[in-house]
Design a protein that fits this description.
Oligomer: single chain
Shape: globular
Bound molecules: adenosine monophosphate, fe (iii) ion, zinc ion
Strand content: 15-25%
Structural class: alpha/beta
Order of helices and strands: EEEHEHEEHHHHEHEHEHEHE
Largest sheet: 9 strands, mixed
């Protein structure tokens, strides 16, 4: 059941990466390709967390090699209205091991995917109207049926058209939250998303709460409020977190009894981070599994 572990002196450590994306959202590997890439990277436990979508679960499960375990999940697009700042902040919530047929989750994911599609069309129209060589056909060619569309798909079209040199440059120049081409969505209030994940037997983990380069972030004391509505964990070790913010979050997690996770947030070639660049402690993983009642961790 336990796969090829990495030996660190006398301690045998599993490589646990609990946050990765596929072509079902804004990653560039399809679900089977993600599993193969994870195996090549020596990952023992993989979390599959596409944005607002569980459509990759079955294909990833079918591709699991012997020894690898799959934690089925999703990353929910949310807003936080809590905290001192009155303006809502865009936040992401990781849900793990929830029942994917839970009616409220299905309905909200369908709503968000439709809204993502409409928003992407409107962003493309705005850019095309200003003379940028982008069109819906090119952008939507990156999106398999039922996938969650987003800015990274538009970014890829801008790279292909030679407007920018990389997806990262597209975000820095044209697609960031303050850009005239950026359009918001009506994402789920984070407390509502936590309640849905819990009701579906899953564990809710606040994704990269202090990823400051993406825009405004929540006040850390929001975590305490969310614990009261069922938040179970916080992603501390993430490529977009500074050492200082990791220390702050680790301290808060200890005070609040939150599970601490670490993950690459791998997006294939849409980002430079590689699988297992950040990992989760095996004891934290065990705690997460112990709190879930929705679906099982799958073993290859
Ligand atoms: P959207 O869901 O359309 O609002 O787009 C947000 C997504 O863009 C996030 O899920 C990230 O994966 C991705 N993203 C944000 N900033 C960058 C960046 N600088 N480079 C590549 N991808 C990014
Ligand atoms: Fe993403
Ligand atoms: Fe995220
Ligand atoms: Zn993510």
């Amino acid at each position: 059941m336990i796969g090829a572990a990495t030996s660190l002196g006398s301690v045998t450590r599993l490589r646990i990466d609990l946050h990765a994306h596929t072509t079902v959202s804004d990653g560039t590997d399809d679900p089977a390709g993600l599993v193969a890439a994870a195996a090549a990277a020596g990952v023992d436990v993989l979390g599959l967390t596409d944005h607002d979508n569980t459509g990759g679960w079955d294909a990833a499960a079918a591709a699991l090699p012997p020894g690898m375990r799959l934690v089925r999940g999703a990353e929910f697009s949310c807003v936080s209205h809590t905290g001192r700042d009155e303006r809502p902040v865009s936040v992401h919530l990781l849900g793990y091991l929830f029942d994917p047929d839970h009616a409220a989750i299905v309905a909200e994911q369908v709503r968000l995917r439709r809204e993502r599609e409409h928003r992407l069309h409107r962003m493309i129209e705005r850019m095309a109207a200003d003379g940028y060589p982008v069109d819906a056909e090119t952008v939507f060619a990156y999106l398999p049926e039922g996938a969650s569309g987003g800015r990274p798909h538009l970014a890829r079209a801008l790279v292909a058209a030679g407007v920018v040199g990389s997806v990262n440059e597209a975000f820095a120049t044209l697609l960031h939250n303050g850009s005239p081409y950026y359009l918001p969505r009506s994402d789920t209030p984070v407390a509502t998303a936590i309640a849905m994940v819990r009701a579906a037997g899953g564990v809710a983990v606040f994704a990269h709460p202090l990823a400051r380069r993406r825009g405004r972030v929540v006040e850390p004391d929001v975590l305490a409020e969310l614990v009261t509505v069922g938040l179970g964990g916080v992603e501390v070790d993430h490529p977009d977190h500074s050492a200082q913010d990791r220390a702050l979050l680790r301290g808060l997690a200890g005070d609040l009894g939150l599970i601490v996770t670490g993950s690459s947030d791998y997006h294939g070639t849409n980002k430079t981070t590689q699988l297992a660049a950040e990992t989760t402690d095996p004891r934290a993983f065990e705690e997460l599994v112990a709190r879930a009642t929705g679906v099982e961790v799958l073993a290859g």
